[in-house]
Amino acid sequence: MSDLLERLRGRGWRMTAQRRVVAEVLDGEHVHLTADEVHARAVDKLPEISRATVYNTLGELVTLGEVLEVSTDRRAKRYDPNAHTPHQHLVCAKCGAIRDVHPTGNPLTNLPTSERFGFTVEGVEVTYRGTCPNCAAAA
C-alpha cells in the first residue's frame, strides 16, 4: 500500500474506488502530475472515472494537507504527494521536469530580521531552476 493511501486510511478518509485510484496514481517519489495527467492515468485503471471527480479529489487532498499544490511557473499546477517531508523543487527550464530536493539548512534563517518588514514568516518556498540531463543532451 502506498504511503499516501496509508495516511488517508489513518485519517479515516472514505476510500471510494475513485479516490483510491487517484491516490494510487499519485504514489511515488518525485511525483508532480497535473490534474489532466492524474485523470489520464486514473482512466487507465478505472475507465469510468470523470475529470470532475479527479479535480474534486485533488482539491480534497490539498485541503487535507496530504498533497501539495505546486506552481513553479505559468504552466498548469502540479500535485505533489510528498506533503509531510520538508523539501524544495528543482525544475528544468526547458521541459518542466520537477524533482524533489532536500538541501541542508533552513532557508528561513537566511532572511535577516531587517528584511522581514515586521512579517511573521511561517514558511518558505524555494525553486531551483536549471536544465535536466535529457534536455542538456538534446541541445
Topology:
Layout: H1 3-10, H2 17-25, E1 33-34, H3 35-45, H4 51-64, E2 68-70, E3 78-80, E4 88-92, E5 98-101, E6 127-130, H5 133-138
Parallel strand pairs: 4-6
Antiparallel strand pairs: 1-3, 2-3, 4-5
Helix pairs in contact: 2-3, 3-4
What keywords describe this structure?
single chain; 139 residues; alpha+beta; three-stranded antiparallel beta sheet; three-stranded mixed beta sheet; 5 helices; 6 strands; 35% helix
Number of helices: 5
What proportion of the residues form beta strands (DSSP E)?
15-25%
Q: In which order are the strands of the major sheet placed?
A: 1-3-2
Structural class: alpha+beta
Report low-confidence residues grouped into runs of 5 or more. none
Number of strands: 6
Shape assignment = globular
Give the termini separation.
40 Å
Query: Main β-sheet, in a few words?
Result: 3 strands, antiparallel
Helix and strand element order: HHEHHEEEEEH
Average of per-residue pLDDT values: 90
**Radius of gyration, Cα only, in angstroms?**
17 Å
Task: Work out the helicity level.
Answer: 25-40%
